[in-house]
Design a protein that fits this description.
The protein has an 8-stranded parallel β-barrel, surrounded by 5 helices. It has a 3-stranded antiparallel sheet with strand order 17-13-18. The chain has a 3-stranded antiparallel sheet with strand order 14-15-16, with helices on both faces. Helix 12 crosses helix 14 and helix 13 packs across helix 17. The protein is built from 20 helices and 18 strands. Helix content is about 40%, strand content about 15%.
Length: about 575
């Protein structure tokens, strides 16, 4: 049975409902200022695993309704949905009890390759069956209705297909899902493909619309077919443009008020600027309230039954696109940096480059967050080369992007410029350990204060999964500290001055690094495999001083490094 969120009464209240996209960078300002907003919306995948930002989101959900907006489930993929992704999503839904759960009419993954972008889907009978089945599976997994958002489009397909409004309306009818109408995406897509955004708005079924999105786009000029062409990119990194505000006003006239979200996903201005965008949306919603007092005009669903939307243009000879073949070929073309896609309409074939740029830019931005010191050492331009080669040859394999990037050091040997920088391997290992610990859960930690000493010594133990041990012939901690963008001061590192034995772990939801002696490192290496505390201590007799052993044991308990283990 599909669950209806306890927050859904927001939609029928007598005042407009404007929310803001919440991102990790905004939590501090939101927690201190408590802005008057109806709800917040979080990208679901950012809160998979266990992290301090996940805790912040759960705390936020105690004070505000929170929506969960997915960007990586890949509902349009030609193979099956990732069960681990669905499981993580359900776990987050249970923790937050969201206002809405939503995702996109798009795909990102096929055959163990998963790219951080919303890729275009041919809207034919085969893809309808595929997406419909996946929406039903998603709703079953999360136990409630989900909303499906219209994507931004940058090219037209060279094949007959349904119009997007008709496709979305049919999905809502077939699956019981709701629709998330992204007004910015409607405008961006119409501008890029020569469509009429007003016609699109008029042909979406009002009864299915549950939420609106507003965001900013970025105009860029690209050369297509030898001609400079303006393309609008759905970047969510600036203020909402006037044409989108105008289209939003017409959307409200056509469909009435809904909970409305302002998205701003990067290059964040001060919170006051974001709240100013929310106030503009609120003003338009108030105006529509005055016009119709939340009553939909009679033209809605009845009129839609008699209307049809012209499908996108296509080649008269084009055959329907077979989705499995298309997705395999599209990923190959995208990752190999081919210049065009035969699936696109003549004149749009070289717009594959728009998606390539989106994908590689997103992967670069992510890897730069994971490896800031590595980027600091090699420089921005060289780091971009590393990211491009790595992501082209080893693309992500899961929708949870935080699982990606561990193997970046495997390509260092392909670059002659890195031969004289042998410490980079260890620096990359260290930064990955920090990243991995941040998103890893601490489970079944041993509380030594509740156990008798004899029982404690005999208890099965193993290091908790956030712990990573790194031994390096180089002063990695100093290299890392002095290579971060936040470092101020002179760089003074001698590669021969010291070696580092490091234990990385999560303590009280913060990732910490502890420098160990070689003997303590040996002791903790013994704890990586299931053992008992007594066996580990006895195994170190004669190899470690009593003082160092005591310090190691103290770390085990003060930092919660041990998990219970039962064979």
């Amino acid at each position: 049975m599909v669950k209806i969120s306890k927050h859904l009464q927001l939609e029928t209240l007598g005042s407009p409902q404007v929310g803001l996209g919440i991102r990790p960078e905004l939590f501090s300002a939101v927690r201190s200022e408590h802005p008057e907003l109806a709800f917040f919306e979080a990208h679901s995948e950012n809160y998979f695993g266990d992290s301090i930002t996940r805790d912040y989101l759960i705390e936020l959900a105690q004070d505000y309704p929170v929506s969960l907006h997915g960007v990586a489930l890949s509902l349009g993929r030609a193979d099956g949905l990732d069960p681990k992704h669905l499981s993580e999503l359900r776990r987050l839904v249970d923790a937050v009890d969201p206002l809405f759960v939503s995702d996109h009419l798009a795909w990102s993954a096929y055959q163990h390759q998963h790219l951080p972008d919303l890729l275009p889907l041919p809207l034919n009978a085969q893809s309808f069956k595929l997406v419909s089945d996946h929406i039903k599976a998603m709703q079953d997994a999360v136990g409630r209705q989900v909303l499906i958002e219209n994507p931004s489009n940058y090219a037209l397909f060279n094949a007959a297909q349904l119009s997007e409004p008709e496709f979305l309306n049919n999905l809502a009818h077939d699956t019981g899902c709701g629709l998330l109408l992204d007004v910015n995406n409607v405008y961006v897509s119409a501008s890029n493909t020569g469509a009429d955004p007003h016609n699109y708005i008029q042909n979406i079924d009002s009864a299915a619309i549950k939420e609106y999105h507003l965001a900013g786009y970025t105009p860029v000029t690209r050369v297509f077919n030898g001609e400079p062409t303006q393309i609008l990119i759905d970047t969510h990194n600036q203020a909402i443009h006037d044409p989108v505000w105008d289209l939003f006003s017409k959307t409200l006239d056509c469909h009435g008020s809904r909970p409305t979200l302002v998205e701003w996903d990067s290059d964040y201005p001060p919170l006051d600027v974001l709240l100013g965008e929310c106030c503009k949306a609120n003003k338009q919603l108030l105006e529509v309230v005055e016009r119709n007092k939340f009553q939909k005009t009679p033209m809605q669903s009845e009129r839609l039954c008699a209307q049809t939307t012209s499908p996108p243009p296509c080649s008269e000879q084009a055959e329907p696109i077979e989705i499995t073949t298309f997705q395999g070929q599209f990923l190959d073309s995208l990752l190999s940096k081919k210049t065009n896609s035969s699936a696109f309409l003549k004149g749009h074939a070289d717009r594959l480059g728009v998606y390539q740029n989106n994908v590689f830019s997103a992967l670069y931005d992510y890897l730069a967050e994971v490896y800031p010191a590595l980027k600091g050492v090699v420089g921005t331009d060289f780091f971009k080369q590393l990211c491009h080669v790595f992501s082209a040859n080893q693309p992500p394999q899961a929708g949870n992007i935080h699982l990606y990037g561990e193997g970046i050091a495997s390509i260092f040997g392909d670059f002659d410029a890195l031969i004289d920088m042998p410490y980079l391997q260890d620096l990359a290992r260290y930064e990955w350990a920090l990243h991995r610990a941040y998103f890893t859960a601490q489970e079944e930690l041993i509380d030594h204060t509740t156990i008798e000493q004899d029982q404690l010594l005999a208890k099965g133990i193993v290091l908790n999964p956030t712990v990573e041990l790194l031994d390096s012939a180089f002063p990695i901690l100093a290299i890392h500290q002095q290579s971060l963008p936040s470092y101020v001061g002179d760089v003074s590192i001698s590669l021969q001055q010291s070696t580092d034995d490091i234990l990385v772990c999560k303590h009280q939801q913060q990732v910490v690094s502890l420098r160990l002696s070689p003997e303590q490192m040996q002791f903790f290496e013994m704890l990586k495999k299931p053992t008992t505390l007594l066996q580990a201590i006895e195994g170190m007799v004669g190899s470690i001083s009593q003082e160092e052993l005591s310090e190691g044991l103290s770390l085990c308990f003060s930092h919660g490094l041990l998990n219970s283990y039962t064979a």
